[in-house]
Amino acid sequence: MQMSTGSKKRTIEQLAATVSDSTDFPDIDTAPGLRTLDTALRCPICCELFSGPVTLRCGHCFCSLCIRGSLAQKQECPSCRKGEENEGHLRVNPVVEEAVEAWSKARPFILQLLHRGGRLSGSNSSSESGPSNKRKRSNPDSDSDIELVAPPSGHKTGIGSGTVFSKPQEPMLAASPAETPCPVCGKTVKHEIINQHLDSGCKTFHLNNSKTAWSKIMGPRVDPGKNKQTQAKGKERSLSVEGEALPKVSYDTLKDKQIKQLLQDQGLATLGNRALCIARHQKWVMLWNSNLDKAPKNRKSKSQLRSDLDQWLQEKHESKSKVVVEDTFGHQKKYESEFKRLTEEARPKKAVSSQLSDSREATSSEAKYTDATSSTSSPVKLLSQSPQSPHHDGDNNEIEVL
Amino acid sequence: MDARLRRVNKEIADCKNDKASGIKIELIDESPFHLKGIFPGPEGTPYAGGTFLVDIIIPESYPFQPVKMKFITKVYHPNVSSASGAICLDILKDAWSPVLTLKSTLISLQSLLCSPEPNDPQDAEVAKHFTTSKGSFEDTATYWTQIYAGGPGKKGVSTASSGDGKDEVAMAGLEKAHVDQFEALGFQRGKVIDVLRRLNYRGKNVTQISEDRVVEELLK
């Protein structure tokens, strides 16, 4: 399993230095509570500050996206293993979200104060401050606590800064007279449902949408009618404005065409085989629904979600692609001793029983075979497949040799 | 940088900052998803004083799928394969939870060494040895720790000078007298050790297994 995520050589220290975690703060004796506070506001699954925090019935809190990923594997709380949890049990936790928001603003400031009070040393800005629009991130510090942190204004990304409000919003319908901005969440809501919208705690209230919801649950109906393109577009717009959760789909009951239609409805690419389409749609539903668990002002736009999806697919693709050995001779030479050893180990009995010349021939032909296979799988894998010593369990072949 | 890589980096940093646990993580090659875990053998067990290396592979869907771990260091333990180092531990299989980390998993391995579970064995022969004669099992485990994990050894004397034969007998957890007895009948020493180990010719079992049965096995 050799993954080429980075071409340059990395060390443990370099890897460890690219993260911001609770140990940015001094220990409990120097600054009581700070480290614990930072840990408490982090999702136990991704170890980042909560992004769209949701609570399960047992009370444990996770990022919406993380817990959805976890529940897809096993329907239990990852922390206490209380069972029978599903996505329907998730409850948005706006208090934690607010706390995280405040903390992500306060964090760099407190760190700065701490360092000003302590020793000063050269700043060591980390390499992580790429286009990380995936999650709101606090100041990406190295884990060393003797480092000078740049002023918060220069560094802040994501929700902490004032840029949120100027964030390009989803193409909203121009506020027609029938619509009015909600005084609480700022979203445009139809005038006739503004009261219900406010009563439901700014969860968008829909009138007469049960029909569309049912049709979605029962599977998409591919309308043989005209003008599919505009139909899809209209749906997309209404989805992004209304912020309606997408239902889970049982893909096994759908035909390829219907799955592609589902993707098209969401304005996603329909390339690739069935498995890829399903994976794409599943991930999209997860991204979309977890985005809705955030406070409206922290939500990502549809295009951002789309680029998240693309990134995810790309990473998935990269890690899937096998390592291709270009210089086969060099590769053979490099692992020659390893191959020889493995071949020897793979057939300890024959080497004993047969004539020496025979075994030599066998070994050389085996070596060729191993070389051929090794170009696709790494030598480490081979190592794990072959018995490493004559001590393996229940092996009575050696007795038969007598 | 994807979520998996960020999390792995955090876990590596976590182990690096925690000096108290004695757990270390190192890179094997350039990939951050293929690592080597190092932890000390727990005190008060046959593994005390040894240093145990674990091969760690982070799967693509980590942390939603468990990490793949196996011992690099040879360990004599009912739940660890004495040949391949494969580990039988529930949290590495169906009891995995995404809140578990590399550090907590390595600590679990450490405690697995403290409390073997012979009813759910990975290595059946070792498990038999453990259940029939625990004292002899512990001697063997201590010996393996000394040879492979750099442990202090029971007698504190290096046995390297005493030749390969003694090593093999002690490694298999057998008694020298028994091996000598059958070797005197004209069988190869290696074969004798292998058969006796397979028959679990140890402790109380010695009286239950007749010599004829052993010879029969040797002649097969």
Automatic annotation (TrEMBL), chain A:
What InterPro entries is this protein classified in? Rad18 (IPR039577), Rad18_UBZ4 (IPR006642), SAP_dom (IPR003034), Znf_RING (IPR001841), Znf_RING/FYVE/PHD (IPR013083), Znf_RING_CS (IPR017907)
Query: Per the record's keyword annotation, is DNA damage included, yes or no?
Result: yes
Report one GO cellular component: nucleus
Per the record, the pathway is: Protein modification; protein ubiquitination
> Any one Gene Ontology biological process term?
DNA repair
Domain (RING-type): give its ranges: 43-81
Under the heading PROSITE patterns, the entry gives: ZF_RING_1 (PS00518), ZF_RING_2 (PS50089)
Q: What class of enzyme is it?
A: transferase
Compositionally skewed regions (Polar residues) per UniProt: 364-389
Superkingdom, according to UniProt? Eukaryota
- Where does the UniProt annotation place the signal sequence? none
Which keywords describe this protein according to UniProt?
DNA damage, DNA repair, DNA-binding, Metal-binding, Nucleus, Transferase, Ubl conjugation pathway, Zinc, Zinc-finger
Q: Where is the composition biased (Low complexity)?
A: 121-132
Q: Which reaction does it catalyse?
A: S-ubiquitinyl-[E2 ubiquitin-conjugating enzyme]-L-cysteine + [acceptor protein]-L-lysine = [E2 ubiquitin-conjugating enzyme]-L-cysteine + N(6)-ubiquitinyl-[acceptor protein]-L-lysine
User: Where does the record say this protein resides?
Assistant: Nucleus
Which stretches are annotated as coiled coil? none
A single Gene Ontology MF term assigned here is: ubiquitin protein ligase activity
Q: Where is this region: Disordered?
A: 119-168, 217-238, 340-402
- The EC number(s) given in the record are 2.3.2.27
* Protein family: Belongs to the RAD18 family.
Q: What is this protein called?
A: Postreplication repair E3 ubiquitin-protein ligase RAD18
Give the organism the record lists: Guyanagaster necrorhizus
Automatic annotation (TrEMBL), chain B:
GO molecular function annotation: ATP binding; ubiquitin conjugating enzyme activity
Q: EC number(s) on record? A: 2.3.2.23
Presence of the UniProt keyword Transferase in the record: yes
**Which InterPro entries does the protein's record reference?**
UBA-like_sf (IPR009060), UBA_C_fun (IPR015368), UBC (IPR000608), UBQ-conjugating_AS (IPR023313), UBQ-conjugating_enzyme/RWD (IPR016135)
Pfam families linked to this entry: UBA_3, UQ_con
Q: Mind listing the UniProt keywords for this protein, alphabetically?
A: ATP-binding, Nucleotide-binding, Transferase, Ubl conjugation pathway
Q: Which residues form a coiled coil?
A: none
- Active site: residue positions: 88 (glycyl thioester intermediate)
Domain UBC core residue range list: 3-150
The answer, when asked if ATP-binding is one of the entry's keywords, is yes
The family this protein is said to belong to: Belongs to the ubiquitin-conjugating enzyme family.
Q: PANTHER family given for it?
A: UBIQUITIN-CONJUGATING ENZYME E2
- Recorded protein name is Ubiquitin-conjugating enzyme E2 1
